[in-house]
Design a protein that fits this description.
The structure is a homooctamer of 248-residue chains.
Chain A (H helix, E strand, L loop, with lengths): L2 H12 L5 H9 L3 E3 L4 E3 H7 L4 E3 L5 H12 L4 E5 L3 H10 L4 E3 L4 E5 L10 E5 L5 H13 L4 E4 L7 H5 L2 H5 L3 E6 L5 H8 L4 E5 L11 H8 L6 E3 L5 H13 L1
Helix pairs in contact in A: 1-2, 4-5, 6-11
Chain lengths: 248, 248, 248, 248, 248, 248, 248, 248
Amino acid sequence: MNEPRLRELLARVQHGKIDVEQAVRELKHLPFEDIGFAKIDHHRALRHGMPEVILGTGKTPQQVAAVARQLLKQSKNLLVTRGSPQVFRAVKKVARAAEFFPLSGAIRVWGDRTALGKGRIAVVCAGTSDIPVAEEARVTAEVMGNPVDTLYDVGVAGIHRLMNNRERLAAARVIVCCAGMEGALPSVVGGLVSVPVIAVPTSVGYGASLQGVAALLGMLNSCASNVTVVNIDNGFGAGYVASMINRL
Amino acid sequence: MNEPRLRELLARVQHGKIDVEQAVRELKHLPFEDIGFAKIDHHRALRHGMPEVILGTGKTPQQVAAVARQLLKQSKNLLVTRGSPQVFRAVKKVARAAEFFPLSGAIRVWGDRTALGKGRIAVVCAGTSDIPVAEEARVTAEVMGNPVDTLYDVGVAGIHRLMNNRERLAAARVIVCCAGMEGALPSVVGGLVSVPVIAVPTSVGYGASLQGVAALLGMLNSCASNVTVVNIDNGFGAGYVASMINRL
Amino acid sequence: MNEPRLRELLARVQHGKIDVEQAVRELKHLPFEDIGFAKIDHHRALRHGMPEVILGTGKTPQQVAAVARQLLKQSKNLLVTRGSPQVFRAVKKVARAAEFFPLSGAIRVWGDRTALGKGRIAVVCAGTSDIPVAEEARVTAEVMGNPVDTLYDVGVAGIHRLMNNRERLAAARVIVCCAGMEGALPSVVGGLVSVPVIAVPTSVGYGASLQGVAALLGMLNSCASNVTVVNIDNGFGAGYVASMINRL
Amino acid sequence: MNEPRLRELLARVQHGKIDVEQAVRELKHLPFEDIGFAKIDHHRALRHGMPEVILGTGKTPQQVAAVARQLLKQSKNLLVTRGSPQVFRAVKKVARAAEFFPLSGAIRVWGDRTALGKGRIAVVCAGTSDIPVAEEARVTAEVMGNPVDTLYDVGVAGIHRLMNNRERLAAARVIVCCAGMEGALPSVVGGLVSVPVIAVPTSVGYGASLQGVAALLGMLNSCASNVTVVNIDNGFGAGYVASMINRL
Amino acid sequence: MNEPRLRELLARVQHGKIDVEQAVRELKHLPFEDIGFAKIDHHRALRHGMPEVILGTGKTPQQVAAVARQLLKQSKNLLVTRGSPQVFRAVKKVARAAEFFPLSGAIRVWGDRTALGKGRIAVVCAGTSDIPVAEEARVTAEVMGNPVDTLYDVGVAGIHRLMNNRERLAAARVIVCCAGMEGALPSVVGGLVSVPVIAVPTSVGYGASLQGVAALLGMLNSCASNVTVVNIDNGFGAGYVASMINRL
Amino acid sequence: MNEPRLRELLARVQHGKIDVEQAVRELKHLPFEDIGFAKIDHHRALRHGMPEVILGTGKTPQQVAAVARQLLKQSKNLLVTRGSPQVFRAVKKVARAAEFFPLSGAIRVWGDRTALGKGRIAVVCAGTSDIPVAEEARVTAEVMGNPVDTLYDVGVAGIHRLMNNRERLAAARVIVCCAGMEGALPSVVGGLVSVPVIAVPTSVGYGASLQGVAALLGMLNSCASNVTVVNIDNGFGAGYVASMINRL
Amino acid sequence: MNEPRLRELLARVQHGKIDVEQAVRELKHLPFEDIGFAKIDHHRALRHGMPEVILGTGKTPQQVAAVARQLLKQSKNLLVTRGSPQVFRAVKKVARAAEFFPLSGAIRVWGDRTALGKGRIAVVCAGTSDIPVAEEARVTAEVMGNPVDTLYDVGVAGIHRLMNNRERLAAARVIVCCAGMEGALPSVVGGLVSVPVIAVPTSVGYGASLQGVAALLGMLNSCASNVTVVNIDNGFGAGYVASMINRL
Amino acid sequence: MNEPRLRELLARVQHGKIDVEQAVRELKHLPFEDIGFAKIDHHRALRHGMPEVILGTGKTPQQVAAVARQLLKQSKNLLVTRGSPQVFRAVKKVARAAEFFPLSGAIRVWGDRTALGKGRIAVVCAGTSDIPVAEEARVTAEVMGNPVDTLYDVGVAGIHRLMNNRERLAAARVIVCCAGMEGALPSVVGGLVSVPVIAVPTSVGYGASLQGVAALLGMLNSCASNVTVVNIDNGFGAGYVASMINRL
């Protein structure tokens, strides 16, 4: 309910076009609709300029497909995260063009490929085991309208692999950086560039990695000041906020 | 050592202007200088376009002042974080124009007030106890060349205070959002705007706040996708990365 | 063993109706019975005015059914929490009218639907993944004799969804509020109403949600003073204590 | 901004008494005032029927006194929690009748002693070291208009001390129960009564008490279903929510 | 290698019955034998007067049976803890008389039923879900030669169930007390008796029980001074040390 | 209120010596007295055969002295734990014979030195920094009537120091074993003897010792089955329970 | 890119043998090759003198086999850690001589058995359940060219088993020491020898072992100064660093 | 008590030079002496070839000086760690040549400067705040007879500072690497060299650094296989074990 619409509504009251009760009802009306098990919020797309994203876990394939069908009436692009092959098959039925990314479980409908980001987003990861999280970030950034450059398996214990790719890092406007275990990569990357680095700790590792908490703590304590952090394994969130920054 | 300088160096070798040993030495030479207890890295200013920042803790007032004197030869702006009144007095001697912000301990020399950011940064905090951290973010963002709008004491338990200021939130290009206790503010703010929100957990609270860990965990789990997080009480980091985003 | 019964017993001793040994035995006798693997405590129903509730986990379907049969001799209402379909089938055999709620695993026999609560209990949850816990709270509150109003999927990142339902919140005499991830919902709800809010952290989330600990800590640190907290995923406990408050 | 006032406002627009711009401004206006370092929210008193409470930590004595002066214009009762003797002296200057409770640091102005609660609140604690937290709960409940019965030093390792006071427990409409160390008291008390028990873990103990976390975890896992929990040492919160329940 | 044997050995050297090399070898010889994957330590039985106990997890049924066969050459009693039905079948083949306790997975050969303890050991538990751990303690104490009195389902939220059994508690020389969730039972029991109480936290519970850590912390902070604690779910350890105390 | 007294009371009712109301009052009467800030429980001495012990922290010197004076009317022995020199001076005034142990802060009145334990208690500690905790255990065990043998600075990294004292270990009926850092000593000691070992983790260490949590966890996981554990730095509790075992 | 090769390259530029662009390209070229899902770093073998090791988890059997085939072109020795039987079968197809160690999941190709270490490495473990981790260390140390002496099941609760093997410990140049539960073995071993001890905490245990965290903390707090620690269950890392030390 | 001395002793028994009782006494005699509050273990020097080191905390200056005086009778070198200026003054009185290192509190007597290590030890640290810990490592390594090369303030966010010093790293035989905050330095250093790296987490940082736990976890999860870890801030331990390795 933004200010112009409010003014317009009040003007209609002023001019007697609607009465008070109608105005109250309209003021209360907000454009989201209820399909039983979840309120779909089309406002979010308006506010953020990005389509609703469906979290694939904790819903049946049928529920995901129903939400997807509803959302695709408003948007040509759609993202389902952490979907299973079963979810993909259900979504495929309501959206022929849907792609499946099995490492991350992402399901994507990418009907509108307009470039919305102003530059390139680099998605970097430390080891091959971090690729599923990096992939989720990449798929998200792409469907949000950004060209993405991926740079995988450039962990800090073989620092020359990273140093050899400094130009690709330098060419990015925003960087998403995924790492598990000690989570040191964002600090090194952050020191090499002068753009924001979104760090994603991954749950890769064992024992004292504490399911990604070690990497998370490491990244929060990064000595590079251009690093911010999202939740463990949250490739989607990193791709989303990188996209938002890239549109600024 | 960027590529054009490398080409130029190699060309000088090619043309016999310098010999191999000189080239090796020059390739090794990097522009940082050693003043005994800390290597000052002027490269960082070049890379990030921002002056070196001195962490005031763990150094004597004399050490901070010595580093400050050195840095001020290269830059008109300087920031010392977490300084004591003693540190301020020492810095004051090498920089007459230094300001002191006692809540946060920030010390600032703000000689060059050129606007470098493209929009406004909003610094928001939940309660009055969060103001020291918010202040650190504000002072940082200002010295980095950004107009800042502050919005304090708008915690979620009195949600109308936040709702009443939606326009000020909407006017910002980047938002820094500080909160302790349950750390819920960034989720609500994130849902109201379509720009990046840098969340700063503060150590405000007691008992189960675990010195800010509760707020930190809350922010990492934010259901708003445009939220990223920095370390507990890291107002500086939030102001820094917000400045970097605001220059994009 | 309350005071009137004690007086009456002592009077019988005084008047020689029973001898000392009988009195000692009677003083020792307490009205619970032993059915082998669990002592059923009918006293609790007397004390709390609520039927015994059976925790469905850690017991075989046959054990649950046996306890249920015993309890239904004393009460028309019964609740089994966290039951499996197998447990439901076993209970169904001893109670034809039993209902099964598959999301939460609740099994309910609701023979006596007398309204015992003085007002309405609102059960609110943040996301669709929190519904199983909210359902457990609702089913509990209903079987304890309360009208329940449910308000689902009103998480804080889309604050207008909550604001649009302020009147329903305001109409409740007690509120149960379930949320996972950052657990911010009870703070916002608590600020909007002037009745007690029972917060239930859920284990919804991943990574730094630490199986609901993030939400739990957030709720314990709520800046709204009318919020109290129960264990992670303890929808039953919230529904129970809300019912008790609603009878006051 | 409640519905009747909205209707009335819209009616004024309809009847041409105010124009659209005035209506927009009025819709935006909310009754809180800004005194520089903290927004005082008189709305909260309206919503909750309780005066604003000032957290004494993190503010200078002068700041507390200034807020107190402002609040006492609206209310005869006032509570400052966790105040020092210095804070008390400053408050004393703006409120002659202020009392100081040195164990808990509570400062109370209790001008209006109308009974607002419908029954009695019992405040129970396990050991003498828990008394400061219990006192904060008692002082809060009293200033909110409740008769309070205190029952101190009745820890579970001497269970007869508790059993001897069952009647006093039974006479309460709500119970606040404070305990440190293993935090077992609320479970025993909860089993003895049929009213809500607000459990307050205290930071009493050492070593594995982890500054009250052991007691907190114990209370969250209480096997008594009528127990809810507030933050460690949060006597105020317990007294507040008990008062709210006691008014229902 | 005790002192008398040492003297006797040295005397044999002195008298030329054995030479130096033989003495060195003999000094090095210690009475344990190696059966490939585990050193069986018959010394322990000598030292502690109790048979070796086999931990059933992390070994194949065949390995357990092989160790059992070896041990039964030295002792008529044997205990395998945490065995599966498969392990039981394998042990049954080498020991016809073996019993299986499916709740706890204990396997017992109880050939020698001599009473070795001087009094009775009471094994107490809070809820029916704690019975597996209590059973392990009981089976252990019995096979170590102690009469055991079990008192199950006497949790603190129904304190009269415990109070009704005070005489049985008072009749014990040592008490093992198992409880999950808040782990409050040992504090209450400890306050009622004047004998040592071995507290066993169980992993019963969910959410903030943290797999038994809540109960463990509670017990370590017990306000009853006669309580000591063993590891979570360590019914065996509690039964063992209770047996050792009961022989004193 | 034990059974014989109950019978006797009921007999008096039966024979008309007292009326019902008197009986009720007498049944309710329990022998503890209230001195304002703490209920002193003389029952505990009867039940446990040990004097009340006063925790010196969280009380003023005057409060400790007042409780001490009261207790010394019933008992010749008294223990105050964690007292300061100020507390000692106050206690000294009400008990001339009081001793002060500055390492642990223990204050002892040892008027009755009757030997009550059946054997010797060994108090063992790993390093010199653990001596304060060991001293608290020793002082406690002595005042409870036990001969004590102390064996200090025998940590496991110099295992021969422990091995050289095996006979002294073997001569004890119960062992208290204090260790910080890795807390390994109880496992080695437990393996060398066949009597109960009470392990006391100390907060000695730094960094990953986590104020004694590392030692606590180590002891709870001891591979020696005769080890039970008390709270970090709880020398008193270990001495107390060792005394209780030694009286069996 | 080492200094001699740099000089030689610059000399070629100087002498006009290559032009600047070729030099830049060559400077950028580093000897690793990309096989799609993982960059294989032959440099590491050069730098560390040890073959690349493949972590078997998080890769398909086919991926492991493909990497293995590539690596075996450069080296006669290869190690896959944490492989399944499926992975082994796939590797077996590209390396006939591959061995499988089912306890640890190690897969080894040991074509070149040259002794590279200067002494013997002892691999010690506390209990039979620690053998899988010890085996991983042994297999690693062997394939890196070291004679290994294994000493299993010598936990500290039966200290004589360890003392009986002091000579074997003394004969080692480096010791790897694996233990779960309380993790005390490295402290005792460290005190007995004067060589480096690499401690490996294992996840053996239950309850308060916290999946190996208890052992990890214990080892980090070892009172023996010659102990360093690797991650929980990281037998490979311990064997690797022991090999590296043994080559010095 | 080594084997040759044992043989010699037994031979003396065999030849009648000493009788059995003398042999028993001699076998029991071990060369450590007791000076009241601490057993000094000269064996350790024999076993490890290094002097006893005194931990300065938890002892009075007089106690430290007394132990120092005793130790200096056996050794020309001595190290006191974590000493205060007061401790230094006391030690200075018994050892004129003692040096004090105020950053780390190390006190050193360095009478014998023989080089015992075979190569050079590099001590590297990330930031200037890590220097105290690095200094402790350096002082330790020097007094143990090693040439030390220090490389300070080379944290990973300015990776070129480290890369510029690769040759100095490559010249070391062992590396000690100290870092706080995210603790990433050892991974990068480990990848650059082929010698063992001893990682020392420091407690430098704030908030989510959790007093060094973040750095500790990072280092334990290092993706460089040549990294082992010691306790937080344990510069001494790192210098000690590096010295031991450097003597191999």
